[in-house]
Amino acid sequence: MIMIEPVYSPSTSRYETMAYRRCGRSGVKIPVLSLGLWHNFGSYKPLQEIKAMAHYAFDKGICHFDLANNYGPEYGAAEENFGRLMECSFRPYRDELFISTKAGWDMWPGPYGNWGSRKYLMASLDQSLKRMKLDYVDIFYSHRWDPETPLEETMQALVDIVRQGKALYVGLSRYPAEQGRKAYDYLAAHDVPCLLYQDRYNIIDRAPQSHGQIDLSAECGAGFISFSPLQQGLLTGRYLNGIPADSRMARRGSSLREDVLSPTMLGALKGLNELAGMRGQSLAQMALSWLLNDSRVTSVIIGTSSVAQLEDNLKALGNTAFSDEELRRIEDLSAPIQLR
Ligand SMILES: NC(=O)c1ccc[n+]([C@@H]2O[C@H](COP(=O)([O-])OP(=O)(O)OC[C@H]3O[C@@H](n4cnc5c(N)ncnc54)[C@H](OP(=O)(O)O)[C@@H]3O)[C@@H](O)[C@H]2O)c1
Fold first, then answer.
1. pLDDT digits (tens, 9 = 90+) for 223-274
2. Is the pLDDT of residue 327 over 80?
3. Architecture category of domain 20-258+294-318 in CATH
4. CA 260 vs CA 35, 104, 282, 300: distances in Å
5. Protein residue with its CA nearest to atom 39 in ligand 1
6. Cβ(105) to ligand 1 under 6 A?
7. Is the pTM of this model over 0.90?
8. What is the whole-number distance in angstroms between the Cα of residue 42 and the centre of ligand 1?
């Protein structure tokens, strides 16, 4: 017997519980929680599980999906799977979706498959659009600053990409503040203001705060979007009692190394977990709430490996306020494990 899968029909209440924040001084708002496809959406994940997570997210008002050319594994696989989602579920809802992709890290061999040249950015976005089965993306990012390519070349490529209609907005990721300021100025002078600045920011990695990128994005009229808000899973209950076999840390060649789990790290995470419990939250929820408590943060991009994790994380929205004492406790507990 042939099983016919029912056509996806999103929840009619999908915009009732999510909050949306404006990206800087633009006309566009995005959900405070966005879904990232760096891990868990590549070729090793069954399409059924990918669909379940993406559908659940959209049903709850998460209409911003964050991708990049090389998300996988293998490189390109997350975009290909997103293309499958477009075909089987999301096509009728294209105008309700805010989809990003990026180029700037290694993608294909040779001198034109990495960094920030016009040659790379233009070709990469064309490939991304094909994989994702899209005519345009909502935002295209320069994924990192390239010290060897003139900044003007990278920025002009972004400007031209918008002029060509292949992206509606552009963004920057991982730019040092000095180069970031020049990039914002170039884009604004060419009437393509930067919509979002994207960097890692969470309870234990404060770099964009201490290095000035959060304040700079606000000053230049861009929104700030945090990636790895859970420090790849460290700021959850995942590693409090060992390393689960199905976790990111246990995967071969993982981006999350086992040696970060020092006794100091574990002690601090356990303390934070207890504090979260006193707030009636999981550690993951408290870590997300802490970010959303900062009105300069437009959105946080979560990565999840299951619908249950998404469900858990969405509950963070129910309690994003902190007492002064709770904030002080978070500072004290995280001080020994803060990275930058
Ligand atoms: N611009 C850039 O350079 C850049 C760099 C990195 C990431 N990003 C973007 O940011 C997105 C998010 O990054 P990330 O995946 O590192 O984010 P993250 O939210 O810090 O970590 C996600 C991982 O945390 C674990 N997790 C999530 N919710 C959980 C819960 N409720 N309970 C227990 N564990 C939970 C899962 O680990 P398990 O897999 O072990 O279950 C999940 O894979 C990426 O997908 C990408 O879109 C951008």
1. 999 999 999 999 999 999 999 999 999 988 889 999 999 999 999 999 999 9
2. yes
3. Alpha-Beta Barrel (3.20)
4. 25, 27, 21, 23
5. 248
6. no
7. yes
8. 14
